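[User] At your convenience, examine this fold.
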Amino acid sequence: MLLHVYNIPVAIGDVPIVLLSVEELKKTAEDHIAELKKSIEHVTSGKLKIYTETRLGNVIDELQDVCKKIHPFAVVMGTTGTSGVERTLFGSNTLTAIRHLTSPVICVPRGKEYGQGIHKIGLACDFREVATTTPTREIVSFVNEFKAKLFVLNVDYDNRQFKPDTPEQSAILHEALEPVQPSYHFITRHDIEDGINDFAESHNLDLVIAIPKKHKLLEGLFKKSSTRQLVFESHVPVMCVHE
């Protein structure tokens, strides 16, 4: 399902806006989504059944309503637009969707393509309260669906690997993820977003799975480093799943 939520334009500062009727806004939205559907049908040689819907309203409110009705496997969103204003709005909407939607949200950077499929997946995990906070069953199902290799990234941002509870939590996670036989790695850099991004690039990951509420990764994904752009503005998509 392709969903486009459009709004009545609001003036920002001294920037003038073009006044359009609701009917004109609706027609423009429907024309754009029809073009997108046509483009996807061409790329997939008509193998996908594609539905489209346009709605006037708040992006997150409409997404929540759609998710309640169709129970999607995941919501796929972009992380940036083309203009400065769009970059701010896309980032804000995506961040809000991650916080409020119960469905997994896959954030895809601009220009990312999956021509060869998803083969390598990273799971950012802090080995805390694994049994109650890590949706291992869903992660195993997702990895199996794509027949992918799973890399578990211990986000050890405060040097916790030698604390007493870590071996026990590690054992719980290892047992839960055993069906997909993951490999385990430590991210020990103080800036965990840079650490994840470095690992993702050096190991050619196709996707990183994050559990936003478990640690402070979510906020960092949207900030810029002085030396580089982080996960949300690199080539590595991120799928956020809730506890």
